[in-house]
Amino acid sequence: MSPLQESKQSPSQPQLMIGSYIGKLLRDNFGKGPESVYVSMGYTFITIYLRNFLTPSERVLLEQDQDMIILQMREKLMETLVPEMKTYISVVTGIRPREMYFDWNLHNRSGMIVGITSEPFKEAADIQEVYENKQLLEYEIVKISQQAQKAPEEIYSCLLNPRTLVVVRNGILVRIEKELIRLGHADLLKRVKRNLEKSYLHNNSAFESLLSKRVIDILVDWDFVLDKSVILFILNPKPPSGGNVMDMVDTDYEPNMSRNGMQDP
Predict the structure, then answer these.
(1) Backbone phi and psi for residue 236, each to the nearest 5 degrees, phi listed first
(2) For residues 250 and 222, which has the higher predicted lDDT (pLDDT)?
């Protein structure tokens, strides 16, 4: 089956249900939900990509360069919502995620929620563990990790579909970071790491040429207890025009993912 044919397939019922639930849950708790929710499932991964998600009050704060206040508020809210998300995913799929990661690109008005399970989803599509220039792309991620902290002890990546690339790193914390976590400064450490790593990721010009696709968004989160990190690349198969396009989401973006039925802007 060609990628074009694959992109026209109807999303599965679990993906539709999860996308609809996540959109409503965020709207009920934030006061405004995302306009679009895209859900991808493959092997032990479920990724949820949010578009146009920014409340009116957050927009005011963003205009005043108060990004950190927005991120802190979202962090606290998500801590209460993640257990509900895990439970609903378990009800729909029969498998409860053991790990959840989330991140936001405020200026892009986008966000990610990524779950990892202990066993494969039964109705998930096949993933692509071998893809164009995989080793070279992972090497770029390793170099970024070295710049920000240290090279990961393990790295794994796969394409869930032509537009969704997941990268998992294990063993990335250095001793001083572990001590900061032990002393109760995990929130501060995550803010620092997010700013530093995302600046490296967003300004890396190699990703698009290696993947032969436009990079629409890159999001990243960490689990300090597990010493683990997940990076999510949102891709567009259109040939890159040079450099990662990170400021605005592509208005032609029509991913091979489930949508929650909300209309695009």
Answers:
(1) -130, 125
(2) 222
